[in-house]
Design a protein that fits this description.
Layout: E1 9-13, H1 23-31, E2 44-50, E3 66-67, E4 70-80, H2 84-98, H3 104-118, E5 125-134, E6 139-142, H4 147-161, E7 165-167, H5 170-175, H6 181-188, E8 195-197, E9 204-206, H7 213-221
Antiparallel strand pairs: 1-6, 1-7, 2-4, 3-4, 4-5, 5-6, 8-9
């Protein structure tokens, strides 16, 4: 699943996470598995679980998901839609045949008729998105960063396991590793850097911290 380049986002499971690769875990995946829309006669989207060995979602083997400390999960998103240009050409042809521009009702009926004849022959687009679930850390790494993918994954995860995913921030990521007490205290004392926006360029500029007066005097005063 790993590529030479790519990006990912991290989430933390809110509350007790699902028991990895248990019977209930696999049953939950099967209940929300991917379902084909190849023969659908309407525009629609299908989202569900599959595995790396079975992209149809018909089976969920432990050996296909076991990745040592993590569980290899895969979400499939299929979307079926009619080609926009194809519809536009047929609608324009209908206008010319009628000798006038069709009204809204006529265009709607024609579009529905065209879709009913076209869509059963149109194959959906397929998207496969991988994720790693670390049960001990209650963390999920999702190898997809678009809003559509992250929202679809969070929604499917919640429907499957009845637990929410919360976006990881630098603080929570740092606290998820084994830090000693000194590092934890240092992390708790850190404050965010303030940023301001340059209205002309749109760039975000770092606000320099205010230097204490006595420190500035020591640095500038005794130079001999």
């Amino acid at each position: 699943m790993f590529r030479r380049s790519g990006s990912f986002v991290c989430f933390f499971v809110e509350g007790p996470g699902p028991e990895a690769l248990s019977d209930s875990f696999l049953e939950a995946l099967a209940q929300h598995r991917f379902r084909s829309i190849e023969n659908a006669a309407a525009e629609q989207t299908s989202v569900g679980w599959v595995t790396r060995r079975d992209p149809t979602g018909d089976s969920f083997g432990r050996e296909d998901m076991d990745c040592d400390a993590a569980v290899w999960m895969r979400m499939r998103i299929d979307k079926k839609s009619a080609p926009t240009k194809w519809l536009r050409v047929h609608l324009q042809a209908a206008d010319q045949s009628a000798g006038k521009k069709l009204n809204n009702k006529e265009r709607k009926e024609l579009k529905e008729d065209l879709l009913s004849r076209l869509l059963p022959r149109v194959l959906p687009t397929i998207g496969l998105i991988d994720a790693l679930y670390f049960p001990e850390r209650r963390m999920v790494m999702l190898f997809g960063t678009s809003n559509a993918i992250t929202e679809a994954f969070r929604s499917l995860f919640y429907k499957t396991f009845s637990v929410s995913l919360r976006s990881a921030d630098p603080y929570r990521l740092a606290m998820s590793i084994d830090l000693d007490s000194t590092c934890q205290r240092a992390l708790d004392s850190v404050t965010p850097i303030e940023w301001s926006t340059n209205r002309k360029s749109g760039q975000r500029l770092q606000t320099a911290p205010v230097q204490p007066a006595e420190t500035k005097e020591l640095e500038e005063g005794n130079t001999e």
